[in-house]
TrEMBL record:
Source species of the chain: Shewanella ulleungensis
Coiled-coil regions, chain positions: 208-235
Compartment list: Cell envelope
Keyword Coiled coil recorded: yes
Parts of the chain that traverse the membrane: 12-34
PANTHER family found in the cross-reference section: BLL5650 PROTEIN, EFFLUX SYSTEM COMPONENT YKNX-RELATED
Primary location group: other
Keywords: Coiled coil, Membrane, Transmembrane, Transmembrane helix
This protein's name: RND transporter
Keyword Membrane applies: yes
Length: 423
């Protein structure tokens, strides 16, 4: 017997039709959802949207972003040159003053330090020798002076005796003259020896000073070389965090003197370095209050510096804090800031019309004349702008309404009726 085949085409057709219907329903729901959002977003900018001038508070702020910067930062420099033998710290490590960050090796410097030690010993020995020679030379000269004084005293006694004998006519004038000449000779010898002592003192002092200077030079050279050897161990100059370390500090790499290898930051005090637009910077001055969001916590502060130059359309400002910061803060974390430009307790405010971009300017706006049921162009002075709010300085009164957006076909008009909006 033969089986009658089932009609599979019918079931396939029903399944395909069901998928198409479900897809169309989903697309309709998506279109309806986005259509409502687009309608709600465009309603404020539709040609018939109005805004009313009302007295209310208004806070004018400027927003920016940036980083936390430690108030005290110190660079880590190499004082001595050498090859890297060990890197002991990495960025992010908290260090204490004196902690070694990396070590260098310089055999030539070590040999020079050993040589300087020998030179220092030689200078010390030379000073000792010269001091002894000076003392001996001065002692000898002082002995000669004492001898000359004794001989002068003897000559003086002989001269006095000869003068008395001459008075008694015992000796001749010639004998007295010889005694006077002998006294003058001994006196001249004493004067000469005294002069030699003064000259010798000056000479030996100069020799001693020279030896002393050579010793001090050797000592200073030794101290410098010892310091340079000590600086082969590059250490932290203060307590803080190692925020930066050069990327190419490989073992064996040679570092020159004065090369910057890292940065240490003091963790006790910070300020915020914020970037704002050049247009906003026009209204920011030092002393303005500010709020900085740090890890979800608003910290109050004040603007302390405004960079005078513009860089890529932005300006840097610094904000110092009035209170304590969270203990979890770290250098260079991202922060957001809001600077209060102005705070109006009660002022005339409107929703910002299309085309009103910059504050403190006059704009031609279309104000509704309720009696004539028409819009009339009027020059309105706008003050501060805060987001979608604009402060009115002049040209509007409380309760007056104006167009947020003028249709293209009416932009060249001076006045037009309400009905013209929908033509």
């Amino acid at each position: 017997m033969f089986e009658i085949p089932k009609d599979k085409n019918r079931f396939t057709h029903i399944k395909t039709l069901s998928i198409i219907i479900i897809t169309c329903l989903l697309l309709g729901l998506i279109a309806l959802f986005f259509g409502k959002n687009a309608l709600s977003n465009s309603s404020s900018n539709s040609p018939s949207a109005l805004t009313e001038a009302n007295q209310q508070p208004m806070l004018v702020t400027v927003s920016g972003y940036g980083k936390l910067v430690p108030k005290i930062q110190r660079g880590i420099n190499t004082i001595s040159s050498g090859h890297i033998v060990e890197v002991l710290q990495q960025p992010g490590n908290v260090v204490n003053e004196g902690d070694v960050i990396l070590k260098l090796n310089n055999p030539k410097l070590l040999r020079a330090m050993e040589t300087s030690e020998l030179a220092l010993l030689e200078a010390q020995s030379n000073l000792t020798l010269i001091t002894a020679e000076s003392r001996q030379a001065l002692d000898d000269q002082q002995g000669k002076m004492r001898l000359a004084k004794v001989r002068l005293a003897l000559a003086q006694a002989e001269l006095s005796a000869h003068e008395k004998l001459k008075q008694n006519q015992v000796i001749s004038v010639l004998d007295l003259h010889k005694a006077q000449v002998a006294w003058e000779q001994e006196n001249a010898i004493l004067q000469m020896e005294t002069s030699r002592l003064e000259t010798l003192q000056q000479t030996r002092k100069a020799i001693n000073d020279s030896a002393q200077y050579r010793l001090e030079k050797a000592q200073k050279q030794r101290e410098l070389l010892v310091s340079e050897v000590d600086q082969l161990a590059i250490s932290a100059s203060m307590d803080g965090m190692l925020t930066e370390l050069a990327n190419d500090l490989d073992i064996g790499r040679y570092l020159d003197e004065g090369q910057i290898v890292g940065m240490i930051a003091d963790l006790s005090q910070y300020y915020a370095r914020i970037n704002i637009t050049a247009n906003d910077a026009e209204f920011v001055t030092p002393g303005l209050p500010a709020r900085v969001a740090i890890k979800g916590i608003d910290i109050v502060g004040n603007v302390t510096r405004v960079e005078p130059t513009v860089n890529n359309g932005s300006v840097e400002i610094d904000i110092s804090f009035n209170g304590d910061l969270p203990s979890s803060v770290r250098p260079n974390i991202d922060v957001n800031a809001v600077i209060e430009i102005a705070s109006h307790q009660k002022t005339l405010v409107i929703k910002r019309p299309i085309g009103v971009i910059r504050g403190h300017r006059q704009y031609p706006l279309f104000v509704l004349n309720e009696e004539l049921e028409q819009f009339e162009m009027r020059q309105v002075s706008i003050g501060d702008i805060a987001g979608e709010q604009a402060q009115v300085i002049a040209g509007l009164h409380q309760g007056e309404r104006l167009l947020l957006q003028v249709p293209p076909h009416l932009q060249n008009s001076v006045q037009f009726s309400q009905g013209a909006l929908h033509e």
